Amino acid sequence: MAFTRATGKHRRATRTARTTRNLAGIATLAASGVVASVASPALAATSEAAHHDTGLQQAVVMGDELAVRIEAQADAQQAAAEATAARAKAEAEALRLAEVAKKKADEERAAKVRAAREAERKRLNTFVAPVTGSYVSTAYKASSGLWSSGSHTGIDFHAASGTSVHAVGSGTVVEAGWGGAYGNNIVIKMNDGTYTQYGHLSSIGVTVGQTVTPGQQIALSGNTGNTTGPHLHFEARTGPDYGSDIDPVAYLRAHGVTV
């Protein structure tokens, strides 16, 4: 006797077909390395359909949970790696900025040192008048019986006794003491090889061998020696001895001093 299915009714898939589909799903998971180890025991038990269904379902659930844990762990590892990279980048940038700042500071410090040295060099090469704010009261080569040579071997600067007398430039003191007709006098060998002399001083403030700089006070003007009144006698010379005099006004002007 034959039996027929009612129209519009669908027969449930056989146990074998369901098992086959589930196996295909697990195989896909296994191929991705997620649940291969978990699903293997279930696949080995193909002879027991009921256990198949239960085992495969458990394997899928466990595979999903494992995948979530693996993904979370991967995310955490990636976040840690990114944080480490960010710290390394920040440290490298901080080091770079520190090096830039140090280089800039070193350059600025070196520039200041160079500027200070240049300023000191200029100062040491600068010439000044021997008496500040004074004027020439007796010219060079003026004629008079007051001088043994018959003419003035230097120039006189108007100055009351006790007026500050300055070195006109940088040099070394080669004479400091009594100078006969010059009274108390100082002779300085200048750094350029010339000599300057300061006469009729009331007091001397330097010693032989001492180095002096432009504008440094070396004495006080006075009225000692062969003189008719207090003033400063100033000479420029090519050598340390009397008779090697040169025009003091031209000498000072050649070094930038207006007299």
Unreliable stretches: 1-13, 15-46
Which structural class should the secondary elements be placed in?
A: alpha+beta
Q: Tell me the helix content.
A: 40-55%
Number of helical regions: 4
Number of strands: 10
β-sheet strand percentage: 15-25%
Largest sheet: 10 strands, antiparallel
- Beginning-to-end CA distance, first to last residue: 150 Å
H-E string: HHHEEEEEEEEEEH
Q: For the CA atoms, what is the radius of gyration?
A: 54 Å
The averaged pLDDT comes out at: 83
Shape: rod-shaped
3D architecture notes:
It is a single chain. This protein is of the alpha+beta class and 259 residues long. Helix content is 42%, strand content 20%. The chain contains 4 helices and 10 strands; from the N terminus they run H-H-H-E-E-E-E-E-E-E-E-E-E-H. Strands 1, 2, 3, 4, 5, 6, 7, 8, 9 and 10 form a 10-stranded antiparallel β-sheet that branches. The longest helix has 77 residues, at 49-125. Residues 1-44 form the signal peptide.
Task: Label this structure with key terms.
ten-stranded antiparallel sheet, 10 strands, 4 helices, single chain, alpha+beta, 259 residues, disordered N terminus, M23ase_b-sheet_dom
